[in-house]
Design a protein that fits this description.
Blueprint: H1 4-9, E1 15-17, H2 26-34, E2 39-42, H3 48-61, E3 66-71, H4 77-86, E4 91-95, H5 103-108, E5 112-117, H6 120-129, E6 133-137, E7 143-144, H7 152-160, E8 167-170, H8 176-184, E9 189-192, H9 194-197, H10 206-214, E10 220-223, E11 230-233, H11 236-245, H12 251-258, H13 262-268, H14 292-312
Parallel strand pairs: 1-9, 2-3, 3-4, 4-5, 5-6, 6-8, 8-9
Antiparallel strand pairs: 7-11, 10-11
Helix pairs in contact: 2-3, 3-4, 8-14, 11-12
């Protein structure tokens, strides 16, 4: 399968694994890369020395291309960039910040740069900044999200009309039919998060993985818009947050309730009551914890079968 994305990253299939906090370690990234996609190490939940360790282990676990996802709102960004360069990482996905900040610097080092956007406006800014591709992420996605609340399948064709660089669709995609639909609308590839969170190789706690499998329609909600919008599974922490909102709280009060380490507590440590459980709406279609290779094979089988059926019509 050849698209602009497979050619850009030199991978077999146009499938990118999202660089999710507390989920996307070297085991997951290398497994996705070994299965023909592009694995991403999620730097957002890693201290610089931990990131270096994951990069080095990923190099040993795969000889295929992989990258690092860097949320620019996190601390130690300069140290993280230095490690990426020192370890000769060839692909970087940036998010949650201005693409102008690091794109030129990274590209001067021979690094392919992709930026995550949630609107046409920011897709255009990313293209002007010189990125090689954009991830267009709709608000169905898990984790931190755009304030515009534009859905993936609305966003993709709108961005496609405005930019010339390759587009990766993200948010609400976990199946072959979702991948086919995104590419029909103009995407050159897809980024998948939630489906890979519920895999054997994911570094998430088993409690969180089991919760993903049990999520149904309506069990997630986009909240914390005053700080950084995030889609969460409804649990005790979520309910406490909604009770606080009834009091018309200040940002300081919201930050006080949020505290520190909520995502780690829920996703990595498995505290299903007090943790922040970030996942996408598509979790309602995830019905089991599988090895990465099985997930990729399932997606490709359905994609190819339905693509062949459509072409027969």
């Amino acid at each position: 399968m050849t698209t602009k994305i497979t050619e850009l990253f030199k991978i077999k299939y146009p499938i990118v694994q999202g660089g999710m906090v507390w989920v996307s370690g070297w085991r997951l990234a290398s497994a996705v890369s070994n299965s023909g996609g592009l694995g991403l190490i999620g730097a957002g939940s890693m201290y610089p020395d931990v990131l270096r360790e994951h990069i080095q282990k990923c190099k040993k676990a795969t000889n295929k291309p992989f990258g690092v996802n860097v949320p620019m709102l996190y601390p130690d960004i300069e140290k993280i960039i230095d490690i990426i360069i020192e370890e000769e990482v060839k692909i970087v996905f940036t998010s949650a910040g201005n693409p102008k900040t690091w794109t030129s610097f990274l590209k001067e080092k021979g690094i392919i740069v992709v930026h995550v956007v949630s609107s046409v406006k920011f897709a255009l800014k990313a293209e002007i900044a010189g990125v090689d591709a954009v991830v267009c992420e709709g608000f169905e996605a898990g984790g931190h999200n755009g304030r515009e609340e534009t859905t993936t399948f609305t966003l993709i064709p709108m961005v496609k009309e405005q930019i010339k660089i390759p587009i990766i669709a993200a948010g609400g995609i976990a199946t072959g039919r979702g991948m086919l639909a995104a590419m029909v609308l103009g995407a050159d590839g897809v980024q998948i998060g939630s489906r890979f969170a519920a895999t054997k190789e994911s570094s998430a706690h088993i409690n969180f993985k089991n919760t993903i499998v049990n999520v149904k329609d309506g069990d997630t909600h986009l909240t914390l818009k005053e700080l950084a919008p995030v889609r969460l599974i409804k649990n005790k922490f979520y309910n406490d947050l909604q009770e606080l909102y009834q009091q018309n709280p200040s940002k300081e009060k919201i930050k006080e309730l949020l505290g520190k380490g909520r995502a780690k507590k829920g996703i990595f440590e498995g505290d299903l009551d007090n943790g922040e459980l970030e996942i996408g709406q598509i979790a309602g279609l995830i019905d089991g914890i599988k090895p990465v290779n099985d997930v990729v094979e399932d997606i490709l089988e359905e994609f190819n079968r339905l693509k062949a059926f459509v072409y027969r019509l």
